[in-house]
Amino acid sequence: MKSLVTGGAGFIGSHLVDALVAAGDTVVVLDDLSTGRLANLAGVADRVTFLRGSVAVRADVDQAMAGCDRVFHQAAVASVPATIDAPVDTHFVNLGGTLNVLESARAAGVQRVVFASSAAVYGETDGTACVEAATPRPQSPYAVEKLAAEHYVRVWAPLYGLPTVALRYFNVFGPRQDPSSPYSGVISIFADRLRRGLVPTIFGDGGQTRDFVYVADVVRANLAAGALDAPSGLVCNVGRGESTSLNALYGHLAALLGGPATPGYQPVRAGDIRHSLADISVARAALGYAPTVSVADGLAALVAGG
Ligand SMILES: NC(=O)c1ccc[n+]([C@@H]2O[C@H](COP(=O)([O-])OP(=O)(O)OC[C@H]3O[C@@H](n4cnc5c(N)ncnc54)[C@H](O)[C@@H]3O)[C@@H](O)[C@H]2O)c1
Predict the structure, then answer these.
(1) Which of 237, 239, 247, 281 measures 20 to 30 Å from 217, CA to CA?
(2) CA 33 from chain center: how many Å?
(3) What's the CA-to-centroid distance between 74 and ligand 1, angstroms?
(4) Catalytic residue IDs
(5) Rounded-to-integer distance, Cα 104 and Cα 147, Å
(6) pTM to 2 decimals?
(7) Quick check: is 149 in a domain?
(8) Does position 180 have pLDDT exceeding 70, yes or no?
(9) Among 283, 139, 135, which Cα is nearest to 211's?
(10) What's the pLDDT at 274?
């Protein structure tokens, strides 16, 4: 099996590349290295074809797609603030790039496209678990771009017979999440600041909750989606189905790494949502997905290895 991973030098993409290589796939990575790093692929560099290019450029996508059986489309500007700052630019990557991937895959006769969507499509909720049938209420250009891209991905299945799956990731965490970026996961930012003896900052009162899912579980969901027999525009949540407040998360990390009992607090950021929790019954039924790593175990592994 030959697989293309767009954004394969990024946090989630590089873990997926590792797993595909371990499973014996021939792997091509297309990445513009805007946030990804070649160091993330160091362990498999001799077994992966790396192409530096953009999903926003059709010729780059076509070159990477040649001969591939399936595509895991992870590349995106994965930052809400970046999309608020430059929505036109990010539109061409996050939406236009997805359209390029779909059209290139269709032209190349690819058997499966798996798309990295986001829980951001749901927008603000009342704290109850998000179900895929709920009306999405995106609150940022990022969420609009992911939702629009997801619609393309879903519609390409019945319209053109291209088998697709869109996975709505919740808050993914694990090694290689870039802590130097102000936009990367709150966990790696907290951990990085605690390690450096600095007081982490929470934007808001810390009562906001997230469904944190360990990256290895997200990789397993991708592998299941990439091997599905009859995926016809399936859209499903990928989280743990468990909510954790940022204050509780901070408490876990401060206990593991040492640090002050309370973090610093700053005003809430534009576009941030208060609660986010996944109902994972669709992924369980359709993909046989079952998260295996608890938040506590994932944090301990991250702290031990990262
Ligand atoms: N991390 C999370 O919790 C989370 C949650 C929901 C959805 N997602 C989605 O999962 C995917 C992976 O996110 P991540 O957390 O690994 O982020 P990341 O920034 O580490 O990975 C994104 C990768 O895409 C690459 N990229 C960006 N623009 C590109 C372009 N124009 N052409 C080619 N490559 C490009 C980057 O260099 C990077 O390697 C993204 O689509 C993101 O929106 C992530």
Answers:
(1) 247
(2) 16
(3) 5
(4) 142
(5) 20
(6) 0.95
(7) yes
(8) no
(9) 283
(10) 87
Nearest-angstrom CA–CA distance, 292 and 282:
17
Phi, psi of 208, deg, nearest 5: -70, 145
Domain total in the chain = 1
Domain, as residue range, for 149: 2-173+213-241+280-287
Ligand 1 contacts (CB < 6 A) are 6-7, 9-13, 30-36, 54-56, 74-78, 93, 97, 116, 118, 169, 171-172, 185
CA distance 224 to 279: 18
Return all residues near 219 (Cβ < 8 A) that are at least 6 apart: 12, 15, 16, 19
pLDDT at 270: 73
Strands 212-214 and 171-173: parallel
- Which of 140, 102, 141 minimizes the C-alpha distance to 124? 140
Give the residue among 3, 105, 13, 1 at the shortest CA–CA distance from 62: 105
> What pLDDT digit, counting tens, does each position of 228-254 carry?
877 689 999 999 999 999 999 999 999
Residue nearest ligand 1's atom 32 by CA: 54
| Domain contains 252 | no
Q: How far is the CA of 297 from the centre of ligand 1 (A)?
A: 24
Closest CA to 35 of 144, 170, 193, 177: 177
With cut-offs at 50, 70 and 90, classify the pLDDT of residue 156.
very high
> Does some domain include residue 262?
no
pLDDT digits (tens, 9 = 90+) for 2-56: 999 999 999 999 999 999 999 999 999 999 999 999 999 999 999 999 999 999 9
Average pLDDT, the chain: 94
In a domain, 12, yes or no: yes
* pLDDT single digits (tens) 74-123: 999 998 889 999 999 999 999 999 999 999 999 999 999 999 999 999 99
For 4, the token pair is 């293309």
**CATH code for position 147:** 3.40.50.720
